Amino acid sequence: MNRYLVGLLLTGAMVPLLLVGAEDKKPLTPREKTELANKAHPLLKKYCADCHVPGKNNVDDGNYLDYLFDVEKLKEKRKVREDNPERGSIYRKLDREQMPPDEKGIAQPTKEEREIMKKWALHGAPKWADAVVKKPPVPAFPPGGGGNALAGKELANQVYPLLSKYCSRCHGTTAKKGGLDPAKHIEKKHIPKGDPKDGEFYKKVHEGSMPPKAATLQPTAEERKLIEEWAIAGAPMWDENEFTKPREFKTLESVLTDMRDYLFKANERDRPFIRFFTLTHLHNTPSVSGVDLNLHRAALSKAVNSLSWHSRITVPRPVDKEETIYAIDVRDYKWDSSRVLRRPNLWRKLLEHYPYGLTFEDSPQKRIVNKLATDIYKYCGTELPMIRADWFISEATRPPLYHTMMRIPKSAKTLEKMLRVDVPENFEKNQLARAGFLKSGVSDQNRLIERHDALYGAYWKSYDFKAGQERGNLIRFPLGPGKELIPGTKYQDQAFEHDGGEIIFHLPNGLQGYMLIDGKDNRIDAGPTSVVSDENKTSGNVEIVNGLSCMYCHKAGMITNFKDEVRGGVELGGEAKEKVEDLYPTHKEMQELVAEDNAKFKFALERTMRPFFKKPDERKLDLATLPFEPVGLVARLYRSEPVTAERIAAELWIKDPREIQFAAKYSRTFREMGLKRLALEGGAVKRPQWELRRSGQRSPFQKASFELDKGTPYNVYGQ
Questions:
Q1: What pLDDT sits at residue 546?
Q2: Which pLDDT tens digit goes with each residue over 125-142?
Q3: Which of 168, 212, 525, 683 is the least buried, fewest Cβ under 10 Å from its Cβ?
Q4: DSSP letter for each residue of 506-533
Q5: How many contiguous H segments (helices) and E segments (strands) does the chain have?
Q6: What is the pTM of this model?
């Protein structure tokens, strides 16, 4: 009786499932097939195109999904079978959840999405409407679709400075816009409406022939992709107000007045700790757009907070109505000196490297300038309370200043002690999480990363290997790093020998700090290019430098597109195999740790940069996944952009660049400094030459300032 009831219940329970299957197999009208295919197309593109495209696999073997062009190929290769649809490999792999594979950590379809794709395969892979394929591809950053949400005018606003920067030298400029005139130089035929990818503009940008390879300035891979997305979107127009609206020239007197007034209103006890960052010289440069200025503001906020050991985020405060001067309190970042904590005066450390220092209390220009400068110096207790923001962003985020500002010790062991991380003990007690893979985004060799709990959140440490390193094979040697760094280890026979690594750790405010190390855990300024490299050349070349390069690469926190290949790949046995299983968690467990750490970082990043992305079309932007990272982008452009007469004039509060050209032509001092080329139309010098300062000597900027009676060179040691 019981068996009968159970059987009856089971039979009844199966009825809905059988009905569902029958419904799926029900013949469809041609219109219904097209509608089904139209639904399946974007899902196939989303979940399959990354792996199954021509050129990534062996096309002759048909081991790819050429669904965008010819569905019949699927039938020829029996991936879709009309005679027995359930035996087609696409249907079977979708049904068994073998496609898309989870092994690469790629996105997985929802249950509903998988059912649509299965039904599409079950009905013989019907053809979708031509409009689905022929319409222009959806931009990588669709409006309101999560991610960057860059589209239309906002996308164009990000692209305009790039077009101006990389194209205007050859394709001309306009006095009104101070940059590229796209209406004149990018004709409709270059970006056709049908498919922009067929246009000359997209092709040249994509293949790397525009700008020409001989050009000094070259866009990064991310910048090039952004320009491509703009072309694909149909080259939408930017907000002309951002680029054509004239800006009133700010004089030195107005800058000092704004600072003096801010200090006068401040609490008397706070004044000695107030310092300023300026963007006035960029504001006074016509070719610098409003978008460029805002990028510098966001970069400044991220840079100062990334050099802070304070527990909270503090955004620099605008002083003037144009928002070209920003005030900070050095105590908000723990830059003030402390004998008890053995903390030096970090502002003074900045001044020791600063090549643009000028004082104005003895200015020959105007008496009012002298009086303003004297008041400011008295309030702040220093003759140099202001620093250029672009110099700070570029130079304070790389060694040696990055190590000084962050008090990064010379050994990882010392840093670990500071952050209360005990690597040997965590290894012994299985209190760390590892993932090893054969190739990473910065190296062609094996890489191992491991996570520890630390004082302010997480402590991540990577182990990198040179090519040909015998013990650099993580499948054979997964239990390093050996006795030198893990004393007493009993897994010496299975220990790898690494050649360097990167350390990423949470700061008290939620952002990240960085340290590069060699194979013995000693601090280094830059990673050897034989081990790691940066194709975006954030530091000015492929060398990865501590701080700056790490900020650029880890703009969203920890990299997520990795999956451990050690746990299931080693051929060890016994206790060593058990140790591997203890140290190398499952992919799901590791991704949960990464997600938790990244949530902490993104929360801090939002508080750091959101004030500078407040326009209606910017409110949906995910700041962690912008197509650029502000600090790295500003730093790269700062070092690579030519220093023209226009820029030098703005840096010296001179409205007419012809004054610089005249000095370059007739001044002996300018000629001795190698600045004669500035007299030529389009003449420029490189940034390192302009700010070169040997020990105890003045930089060319300071010498030029003194020559033109624009200020007195500042000597930090005379303070």
A1: 94
A2: 887 776 555 443 333 333
A3: 212
A4: E-TTS-EEEEEEETTSBEESEE-TTT--
A5: 29, 16
A6: 0.72
